[in-house]
């Protein structure tokens, strides 16, 4: 799951309408995803008044349980949610909102491979429709292992749970990542799902897109006449996108051994940031318009070649002052594992806007600092004007969009240092969301769940987008599957990754990764200024 924390998010405008009446069925109701993310997100929607008054939740899982038992387990989670780490403050729970939500929770025991489970779901939905007036609208959430995605969708179809009695009611299915593990499996899963569901019923979720700063990339670009004219190959030297984590595999060695950093992060999280950064202006904010422009970006991406990719695996080290074990020493991990916990790619987008502008992407576990950012490096100014001055070098102009943990935007530029001679200094202007908007507890799923309930697919992946993303990395996956790395582990926990990733940029000239740290500016302001 990676690191999950509450983001500082603006409270919804008071004019934001409630979602319409519906029931929500969570397959995997007893799982970690439901407890850590889905339930807190639903609670946050309840506190902000965006859940419908006519609402019910049905949790389905294989374990024995009851309505009260499920409610109690979620209640315990809410009141001890990662206690004291800032992810959720149990002392600030709105008891009225939480009790309201709990009273609408119901539990069913069921095997996802047993047709009787889906008949039980159908019966329970009829009950809550009668008692909670849900109007026949149902959101099915697949919070299950990816091997069950097709199975659950098939079960829903066989029980006719994806069909509605009237034209006004709706049935929608949310599918978590990973959606496939390569191009062939993604195509097969799409084909299987779309035999049962229409594309407008399928919501392939990526929680990264629920973050305010990610959504704001489009607004920042298209609503500000200052930046969009510069957003092209004439003015931009390259783009860096970093998603660095300070956690390891968190006891999920079995999952990670079969997945690795490339599959886990690149075709979904990181490529979504690429799409937001590189897309053409849509005609409108209609879901199809926005998603079509994103697909255009994916279709323009050249297939990444093995020589444009670097993989790494962490060794024992020190992260945030604490000793950490090597990946191969993690539970359920092979002692000679060849699975990557770090990946860096050079991505080329072959269209009129971006041809010749490389996108350097990296993500890894047990790195020095937790940070996610999109950084735009502009082309340098000519040096001839400053050849006879004290200035020995002009620093690049950077525009950095910080996704997490401190959401904001910064712009680095050159100014003249006070004095009788021309001497330049790099400075930054910083915008922080927390300084302008009231903070609200948010786990990143609130907007996405609300959008499913209101039928807005803008922030969800379409079938063709998923397949194009896998196409881009499929050659690297195939090569890595056939050619084992010889140098694993090749970076120490608590560092910025393997040296090979630095060399990949160095080969392209005067380029280097931005420091993996929360960087307040090129230097601290002089004279004690803040």
C-alpha geometry: globular
Percent of sequence in beta strands: 15-25%
Number of domains: 2
Which regions contain 5 or more consecutive residues with pLDDT less than 50?
1-11, 82-86, 518-524
N- and C-termini, Cα separation: 37 Å
Mean pLDDT: 89
Task: Write down the CATH topology of the largest domain.
Answer: Dihydrodipicolinate Reductase, domain 2
* Gyration radius over CA: 24 Å
**What strand order characterises the main sheet?**
8-12-13-7-14-15-16-17
Structural class: alpha/beta
| Count of distinct strands | 18
CATH class division of the largest domain: Alpha Beta
Major β-sheet annotation: 8 strands, mixed
CATH superfamily of the largest domain: Dihydrodipicolinate Reductase, domain 2
- What's the total helix number? 14
Annotated CATH architecture of the largest domain: 2-Layer Sandwich
List the helices and strands and how they pair.
Elements: E1 22-27, H1 32-47, E2 55-61, H2 67-79, H3 95-102, E3 105-109, H4 115-132, E4 138-142, H5 149-158, E5 171-175, H6 183-196, E6 202-204, H7 212-222, E7 236-244, H8 253-257, H9 260-278, H10 287-300, E8 309-312, E9 314-315, E10 317-319, E11 322-324, E12 342-347, E13 359-364, E14 371-378, E15 398-404, E16 408-416, E17 424-432, H11 433-436, H12 446-454, H13 463-482, E18 491-492, H14 499-506
Parallel strand pairs: 1-2, 1-4, 2-3, 4-5, 5-6, 7-13, 9-18
Antiparallel strand pairs: 7-14, 8-12, 10-11, 12-13, 14-15, 15-16, 16-17
Helix pairs in contact: 1-3, 5-6, 6-13, 9-10, 9-13, 10-13
């Amino acid at each position: 799951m990676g690191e999950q924390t509450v983001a500082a998010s603006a409270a919804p405008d008071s004019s934001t309408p409630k979602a319409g009446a519906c029931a929500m069925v969570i397959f995997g109701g007893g799982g970690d995803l439901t407890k850590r993310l889905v339930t807190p997100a639903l609670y946050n929607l309840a506190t902000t008044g965006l859940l419908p008054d006519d609402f019910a939740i049905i949790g389905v899982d294989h374990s024995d349980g009851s309505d009260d038992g499920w409610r109690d387990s979620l209640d315990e989670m809410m009141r001890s949610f990662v206690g004291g780490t800032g992810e959720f403050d149990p002392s600030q729970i709105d008891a009225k909102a939480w009790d309201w939500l709990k009273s609408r929770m119901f539990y069913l025991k069921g095997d996802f491979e047993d047709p009787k489970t889906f008949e039980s779901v159908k019966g329970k939905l009829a009950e809550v429709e009668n008692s909670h007036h849900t109007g026949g609208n149902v959101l099915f959430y697949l919070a299950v292992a990816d091997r069950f995605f097709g199975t659950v969708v098939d079960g829903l179809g066989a029980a006719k749970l994806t069909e509605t009695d009237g034209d006004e009611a709706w049935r929608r299915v949310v599918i978590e990542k990973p959606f496939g593990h390569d191009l062939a499996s993604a195509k097969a899963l799409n084909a299987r799902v779309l035999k049962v569901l229409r594309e407008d019923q399928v919501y392939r979720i990526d929680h990264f897109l629920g973050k305010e700063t990610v959504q704001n990339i489009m607004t920042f670009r298209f609503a500000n006449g200052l930046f969009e004219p510069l957003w092209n190959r004439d003015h931009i030297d390259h783009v860096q996108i970093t998603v660095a984590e300070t956690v390891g595999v968190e006891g999920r060695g079995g999952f990670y051994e079969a997945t690795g950093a490339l599959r886990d992060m690149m075709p979904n999280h990181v490529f979504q940031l690429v799409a937001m950064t590189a897309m053409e202006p849509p005609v409108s904010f209609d879901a199809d318009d926005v998603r079509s422009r994103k697909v255009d970006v994916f279709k323009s991406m050249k297939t990444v070649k093995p020589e444009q990719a670097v993989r790494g695996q962490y060794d024992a080290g020190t992260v945030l002052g604490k000793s950490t074990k090597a990946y191969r020493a993690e539970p359920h991990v092979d002692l000679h594992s060849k699975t990557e916990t770090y990946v860096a790619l050079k991505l080329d987008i072959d269209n009129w806007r971006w041809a010749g502008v490389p996108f350097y992407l990296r993500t890894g576990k047990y790195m020095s600092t937790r940070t996610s950012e999109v950084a735009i490096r502009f082309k340098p100014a000519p040096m001839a004007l400053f050849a006879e001055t004290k200035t020995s070098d002009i620093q690049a102009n950077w525009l950095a969009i910080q996704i997490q943990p401190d959401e904001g935007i910064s712009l680095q530029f050159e100014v003249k240092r006070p004095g009788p001679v021309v001497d330049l200094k790099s400075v930054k202007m910083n915008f922080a969301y927390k300084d302008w908007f009231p903070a609200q507890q948010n786990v990143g799923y609130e907007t996405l769940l609300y959008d499913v309930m209101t039928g807005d697919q803008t922030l969800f992946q379409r079938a063709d987008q998923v397949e194009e993303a896998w196409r881009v990395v499929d050659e690297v996956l195939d090569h890595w599957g056939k050619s084992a790395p010889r140098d694993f582990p090749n970076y120490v926990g608590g560092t910025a990754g393997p040296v090979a990733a630095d060399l990949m940029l160095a080969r392209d000239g005067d380029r280097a990764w931005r420091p993996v740290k929360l960087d307040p500016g090129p230097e601290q302001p002089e004279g004690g200024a803040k």
